[in-house]
Amino acid sequence: MIPWAIEYDERGAPWVHIELRSAPLWIVESYLVKLGGRVVEPERVVQGDGWEAHMREGEPVALGSLRIGRGYLDIRGESEVALETLMADLGRMLMRGGG
Questions:
Q1: Alpha-helical runs (H) found in 17-79
Q2: What digits encode the pLDDT tens for the residues 39-49?
Q3: What pLDDT is recorded for position 86?
Q4: Pick from 90, 19, 20, 12: which is nearest to 48 by CA?
Q5: CATH number for the domain including 39?
Q6: Residue 95 pLDDT > 90
Q7: Is residue 12 situated within a structural domain?
Q8: Of 75, 14, 16, nearest to 47 (Cα)?
C-alpha cells in the first residue's frame, strides 16, 4: 500500500497529498474515473462524489542512469470518510513494483 495520511488545510478541510512514482498521470486519471470520478481537465483535475483530485507532473527522479517519472496528486474531500473510501481502493491501484 502506498503511504498516505489525511491532513487539514487552513479552513479545516481534509486533503491527501501523494507523490507518485512510475505512474503516469493518464493512468492515475483512469483509476480515478474507475472509482467514480469524471474528468474536468484531462490529466489535471478529476471530480468524484465528495472529492476532487488535482494532478501535476514533477521532475523525474534519477537513480544513476535510470530516470523514474514523478507526479503529484492532491485530493480534497468534503469529509474524512470520502477520502478514506477513495484511498482504500486508489492506494491498492497505485502500488507499483520496485518501490
A1: 25-34
A2: 999 999 999 99
A3: 95
A4: 90
A5: 3.30.1370.80
A6: no
A7: yes
A8: 75
